[in-house]
Specification:
Elements: E1 18-22, E2 46-47, E3 50-51, E4 56-57, E5 67-85, E6 96-102, E7 117-124, E8 130-134, E9 140-149, E10 153-154, E11 156-163, E12 174-176, E13 185-189, E14 213-214, E15 224-242, E16 253-259, E17 273-280, E18 286-290, E19 297-305, E20 309-310, E21 312-319
Antiparallel strand pairs: 1-5, 2-3, 4-10, 5-8, 5-9, 5-11, 6-7, 6-9, 12-21, 13-15, 14-20, 15-18, 15-19, 15-21, 16-17, 16-19
Length: about 325
């Protein structure tokens, strides 16, 4: 995978994505397309419809046409790459696929979607392979449609991109400036041995350790950290550091610093200021702190001491303008 594959998966089910329609799902359900994690497979596990697959699989077509599935993105934005993964589909994968995208309000039903644009032209596929396609279109999209020719099975589809929130739901309100769904993203990190640092910005509560950020054990006397580009320039009133599910590997303490990158470079160490001083943390606990500072900031650095993990980071505050 390219570096584009490190961008958030805008379609992921745990980020609010939904497979809202499909032409057929006779052998395996359409919802599997956007499940988190890689597809699993156990040979010789047969159900009433045949071998059980962790993916979307249509029947063998005996008439002209092709199969398709429509996904509503959990986090609308600019799509940078599409991954079509045919893992475990070896004799029943589609030989070709294409992807279209459109923009619509969330309340639109699948049959009301219009203005589809092709973002991945029809391309050949292989069995049991993850195919990555770069996307050049820089429009904001809310839905994608996967077309397979003529039929077959696809294990997963990943839609990597940059979140572009609707400013109508951010301006003038108290919002989570560090939320992935509001456009925040981790731009630097000391370590991501066990899981992605962007997990700490994900929607909802982490259900287990894998849904948070966890680093390797440090043996050098230093500490781990990450830097978050916020949804936009703003002020933060409440910080939440959540160590839920981290029973024996939560950090001993943590600190937050901030910077206004409109006035200084991130490399300027003197421009960073304290948002939350180094504070002791407890395992498996949601820690909430009211903050007194009213200095504008665009980026926040989270330092954890010395290592460990965090389930979620929330920074509630107000935007000073439109999202970045």
């Amino acid at each position: 995978m390219t570096n584009l594959g490190r961008l958030p998966d805008l379609a992921l089910r745990s980020y609010g994505g939904s497979v809202v329609a499909a032409s057929d799902e006779s052998f395996a359900e359409k919802e599997a397309l956007i499940r988190p994690g890689p597809a699993e497979f156990r040979p010789h596990t047969f159900g009433a419809k045949g071998q059980v697959y962790d993916g979307w699989e249509t029947r063998r077509r005996r008439e002209p046409g092709h199969d398709w599935a429509v996904v509503r993105l959990g986090m609308p934005g600019v799509i940078r790459s599409i991954v079509i993964d045919t893992a475990w589909f070896k004799g029943n994968y589609p030989p070709f696929a294409s992807v279209e995208a459109c923009a619509a309000d969330a309340g639109r039903s699948p049959d009301e979607l219009t203005g589809w644009a092709e973002i991945v032209p029809r391309a050949p596929l292989k069995g049991d392979t993850a195919h990555e396609f770069e996307v050049a279109d820089r429009h904001r999209f809310t839905h994608v449609r996967l077309n397979i020719f003529p039929d077959g099975g696809v294990a997963r589809m990943r839609v990597h991109g940059e979140v572009v929130p609707d400013p109508r739901f951010l301006s003038g309100l108290t919002v989570d400036l560090a939320a992935l769904e509001n456009g925040a993203v981790v731009v630097a990190c000391s370590d991501e041995f066990y899981s992605s640092p962007n997990n700490v910005l994900a929607p909802g509560q982490a259900r287990n350790q894998a849904e948070g950020w966890e680093t390797a054990r440090r043996r050098d006397g230093g500490n781990d950290w990450l830097i978050v580009a916020l949804a936009g320039a703003g002020t933060v009133a409440v910080a939440e550091l959540d160590t839920s599910n981290l029973l024996f590997n939560a950090p001993g303490s943590a600190a937050l610093t901030g910077i206004d990158a409109r006035a200084a470079a991130l490399e300027d160490e003197d421009a960073w200021f304290t948002v939350l001083p180094r504070t002791r943390l407890q395992p498996d606990t949601r820690h909430r702190f009211r903050l007194d500072g009213d200095r504008p900031l665009t980026h926040v650095r989270l330092d954890i001491f010395p290592d460990g993990g965090l389930a979620r980071l929330r920074l509630l505050g107000s935007l000073l303008g439109d999202p970045l």
